[in-house]
Amino acid sequence: MMKSATTACWSFLSAIVLAIVAGLGTPALSVPATTFVDSTTPGYYNDALGTVLDQTNPYAGTYLFPGADLVDGDPLLATAPEPDLSAAAGILGDWLVNPAALNANWHGPEVVPNTWDLNAETGIVYAIDAGSAGLESLTVQVGVDNGAFIWFDGSYLLGGLSPGYAILGEYTVNLSNISPGTHYLQILLEDHGSQNSFLVEVSGVPNTIPAPGAMLLGSLGAVVVGWFRGRRAL
Asked: Angle at the Cα of 64 (from 167 to 121), degrees rounded to 5?
């Protein structure tokens, strides 16, 4: 009976210590969203494509890359499959596979212009540092006149063509659980005449990190409870 009462006493004291530590502990740090890319962010830029992709990738009665000067009209493709870029392979190089080692057609990092040569296609690569803890989420927003095709770390996300001015969020994708380290956003811009424009914004929420006070007090609580249990065993 005495041993049972002693055990209950030590258990009760341990619970009190843990409750005190929990009450004193500070919550995890709340980290606001970070803007990684906008219209002022330097990126790598390839303006050597010209019209080499024109009238390739037939799709939905038109092309993913319509002919110059509106010869194929001004199509609306709200969503488009991943394009076959083999006609431009020598110009683009391994930009989707190894964006850290771009060929000589790429220049930068520099602020990417929001307009480019009419009828031409251009490639863009942005490096995004997810830090040592990674990101809980990442939102990619693109607006373009006429078209855009978007990849993240070489994996195709979405694309399409649309007449009219660029509107930020015209093409939007939300990603989650981004691993720590450097990642790459790859964009191919398309134009088939008259005018063009480009807008981009990429924002993410870093993974939350326990506050130093919470970690310190949590460790203290574990030590104290361990000491109580050690005393109980004597």
From this structure: 70
